[in-house]
Amino acid sequence: MKNISQDEKEYLQGEGEASNDKIVLDLSGNNWQMEGIRPDEGVKIGFHELNFDITGDSFNWGFAKVPGDVYTDLWRQGRIEDPHFGRNSLKAKWVPENEWWYKRQFDVPKEMEGKRIQLVFDGVDFGCDVWLNGELLGTHEGMFSQFKFDVSNTIRFERLRFGTNVLMVRLHPAPRRYSQVAGRKPAWHGDYWVALPPTGIWKPVYLEAMGQVTIEDTYVKPSVLSENSAKLDIEIELKNHNSTNNNVNVEIEIEGENFESKIYTVNKETNVAQGTNKLELSIDIDDAKLWWPWDLGDQNLYTAKVTVSENNENVLDTTSTSFGIREVEMVHNPGFTLDEVENPWTVMINGKRHFMRSGTWGGPPDIFMGRAHPSKYVELIRLAKEANFNNLRIFGWHPEEIPLFYQLCNEAGITVWQDVLPLASLSLPKNQEFKDAVFAEAISSVKAQRNHPSIVLLEGSEELFMTASDPQHNLQFVNELGEAIKPYTSLNFIPSSPLSDEVGLNLGFKPKESFHANDLFYGEGEFVMEDYFPSLDYAVIPELAISSCPNIESIKKFIPADEIWPPGPSWGHHWTDFDALRTLNFEVVGDQSTDSLESFVTATQVAQGAIFQYALEHFRTRKPRTSAICICHYITFAPDMKWGIVDYYQEKKQSFDYVKKAYQPVLLTMKHYDRRWLPGEEFKGELWVVNDYYKTYNNCKATIKFLDNNKNVIKEEQFDFSEINGDSSSKYIDVTCKVPGKIGDKFYAEMTLVDGEDNVLSENDYMMLVADKTKDRAELRAIGLEAFEIKQKYGWANYFRYFPGLGAEEDHLEADQKMPIARGFDK
Prior knowledge:
alpha+beta
């Protein structure tokens, strides 16, 4: 296969020899133009008829880049201000009122002449019409499904300086109602973004020239026979574009992609009828290198190259598919009856338990795909592994990801727990046309992704029952969705998350399946972590949400200088839950920390980290009864004051380090059921070790130090742990310490676990408070109740509730007289 990029101009020189290779001409890049106009006006004035004049009618159009998006192109041109800064996104709400036209001129290599040429769009958000050289090729809707047009008879082979072929793409006005496009586009609203529905050509565009029999799909289904042998059943989907049958030869070559291996080959002569043909071939791999998550083994990847030819020499088409040899099996979590947990929730990979230390991906790295550069994906996957994640969850508020994401997860050994399509928190339409479109999109999506060894578990939706007006209809819909994709994947399918909330129980789900552990955040002082998390008894926790502010240097990048401190309205627009943050600050550090920007930001990050650490370590000690825990989120796709532990600018918050500690594959943890202790009381804790590796450690030693408010050591002990079994969670010993200091102080515990050769296996630490638990809980509840009263007045999503100057409250100046300041921060 010959790939020709937009920058490779040598293909325009000379005739050369005719080639039987498949030729791919990349049309992506910076050589695009774009313009907007009122809906339906572009065709009326003839945008689709624009030709290849050197100056012509589009000389004053803006320059654009594909893949990308409309907002990013407009921002780069200077037509809108950065939507991520301040409240600028509200000023760009005119953009989705228009249709947007994208234009690309190009020439094609002479080698393409005589071949079947197709124009391929890997993804357009959300709907578009396509013209080539004035001819309407067709219309497409659906963000995730690839679509193609045969342009063999439309392409021009003349060559001019700026290209004789003119591709015109009319983007329909961006959808305004999520319910009408759910499943084929993610929600563009939520509790960290509200303003603008994305739109654009978000994936590559290219031409392919090949023969009349094409490879439409390759699906490699591995079966692990033993530790070093496997069988590959390979399904090939061929399409014969001729009107008559053809005899072709199909050859498959298998070899290591990231390691040296011998080449395995299988050939088959077959007769293909007009239209779509299915072919199945098998290959035995006698020295198989298995793919594993990073904490269980190596990430061996293979390539399957498929070539279709005529007469053993004329190549019609060729493709390469990356895959891994691994088997995924789901088993029931021990300790639950089938009356408590009906679904199998433990992921077994090649026969080994894969406890999922997960975080919701919260991506792409930018809601505007034109700014979601590949380097950001590389860095974010690197940071995920640094934080000891072995899984990332893409749930129904977010789109499926670009191929690079899955490739990076394949290479890093990070598994993916994925909602098939973005279906989240809504009542689904009940017409058949909607259902058919969503199911077709789902099948397309599954087929495109199913060779990635990183994808291990599929779900149908996110919170699709808890807020719906007709949850029974939604349940039937996602159950049918699961049946629709079943012929195309062997992965387990769960209809939604959570299953065991009140609505889920009313729908007939079992009481201990899955639960979103978010009440500590939304309860605003109703609970404390050491009571709340140990009360939860579920097979998996797919979502655990606590928010925080990003670092101060990051805040300065998206909050206007005159609003940074005291916090102004842009903080509210970027989803600062001031009341929730104040209650969490008080719970964790003993103070609301509103006296300065530095103390407030630090407290929010410490609070998020400490709560995540406490919860994650608790649920990990429940292994194998609990088999997965997922924080919400790892990242978010816009600058905000919300869920991520890595912010929009790829900067780590302090909470990152807490999660990194809690997710150590070998974890020394101290269970403690109180964080507030009176001076002189006997602090009590339990030392546990969780080992997610399959390696047993012998002759280990654990050291614990207790320190006072000034970090002076007041007690130090060492314990012998003779054996730490692989894939285990066990309590080893109780620890105690007389609480030092006075009310208002803090005290600390620091721990280290080493093996028999003094190699450090785990390090951990905790901060506790010298405080009156009863008094502080009453104060915590009072803060929360005050917040609930204000929320009742304004509504939970209205950030005006934080700013009396925006809420037209008596005795407060309007914004034209004084910059609005967040309630509680004006002292």
